[in-house]
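Can anyone check this?
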Amino acid sequence: MNTSTGMFAVRARPAARVAAAPDLAALRFVLLDIVSALAARATGDHSDREQSPAALHLLAAALASPDAPPAAAGAVDELIGLATTIVYGGGDTDPASAGVNRFVLAVAHLLRARLQPGAQQDADRDAAAEHLLTAARLLPAGHPAGATVRAALPAFTEGW
């Protein structure tokens, strides 16, 4: 209160900061690069073949294989963070794309579950199962990723 005037001073509020929406298209290409690198390590195929966004589900399925070597924890955490941002970042109205993104997130949680024991492993397995089922629901009938998701199911249930 200003004692000379008997009035309260009004303070200007700082302008609210609005976070910019993530560039989902750019993030999808980063996701493709990460999944491609991890799949190359898992399969031993380091050929210089072109990686297509249409092949993302196949690359992710290679990572889900029980025979794949464990991925580095840092790479898995980066994969989960990026896939989570894409899945929950909004703006994905294409069911096929949304389904593939969910499948990648399911695989990322599966990879992390394989790296850690105990309660966190259970939480990641639950998250993997939830995202796998959502991916299966989102993918349109006849989409090639649908067959990949169904074929990957045993990898998600192994050891439970």
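Reply from J.R.: I decoded it. The first helix runs from residue 24 to 43.
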